[in-house]
Amino acid sequence: MTIDLKTLNIEPRRQTFGHIARRFGEDRPASRYEEGMLDVQATKHFHYKPFWEPDKELYDASRTEIVMQDWYALRDPRQYYYATYNIARAGMRAAAQHNFDFVEKRGMLGNLDAGWRAKVEDYLLPLRHVAWGANMNATQICDRGYGTAVTAPAIFTAGDQLGIAQVIGQIGMDMAGGGGEALEAAKEKWMTADYWQGIRKLVENTLVEQDWFQLFIAQNLVIDGIIYPLVYDSFDASGQAHGAAAISMLTEFMSEWFSEHSRWTDAVIKVAAAESGTNAAKLSAWFTKWRDQTGEAVRPLAAHVLGDGGDAAVDQALATLNARAAKLGLST
């Protein structure tokens, strides 16, 4: 008995989906990111206009003053779609949990000086409420934004901010021996402590901003761009002299996330600013507005944590942010 083996070269009739072929002008293979992000959002055949905003379509580019010829030019350099995003975050979360296990096993939080431990409870634990506000803002950007290239990473960011709030909550429970007392105290500080009220007002102001691109500038570029370096660099560096190595380990997730998140933020703003002088002017005005508000809002917290060094730390964060914005084509 003999068996003859033959190979057949089967040519696919098409290389990709129709919407991708139409965008590229040819039927060529596309990446998973391109297939999952480009031209996915509906643009016509809507059944009704939203009852809560009858002057708009369900997906409407006029929900921001920024104008783009192609909204899908605002692409994510990380090329995240659902699978790659979850794979990346699963790895980061596993590393964070390893740090928690390491700190808990060795009782490292017990090495904190009593005075600095109190400051950590003052400045770090209430940040879970800032992260919750950022979660709401990212969801708003997804809801009101235009084009899947922006709205998909926005909802990923909403998940990130919720995760950051949970990490802070986990730190608070560890500091209280597994209970929620430290988190309850942190909520009270968020509501009543003088050094938190400027930031609380800032967060509340962002929650009512209707222009989603202005909200993108306010939250992703400015608020995160000032608070993260201030808290996870300046405050953390000051804590090293007080036995705060454990806090550095437990907040490494936030530092790593901010570096990665900034890549997407910068890419979106840079392309939008380069689109037209009008866009650049609006983005610059929004940047200046929220930078000034945020800079003033964080000064009382910085003074509470760093004393006389607080203003210098805020000034350094502002200088770094201004340099970053200038590279994106914004006037500072």
Automatic annotation (TrEMBL):
Keyword line: Monooxygenase, Oxidoreductase
Matches recorded under InterPro entries: Ferritin-like_SF, MP_mOase_hydro, Phenol_Hydrox, RNR-like
A GO term for molecular function: oxidoreductase activity, acting on paired donors, with incorporation or reduction of molecular oxygen, NAD(P)H as one donor, and incorporation of one atom of oxygen
UniProt-listed Pfam families: Phenol_Hydrox
Keyword Oxidoreductase tagged: yes
UniProt keyword Aminoacyl-tRNA synthetase, yes or no: no
SUPFAM superfamilies attached to this UniProt entry: Ferritin-like (SSF47240)
Protein's name in the database: Phenol hydroxylase
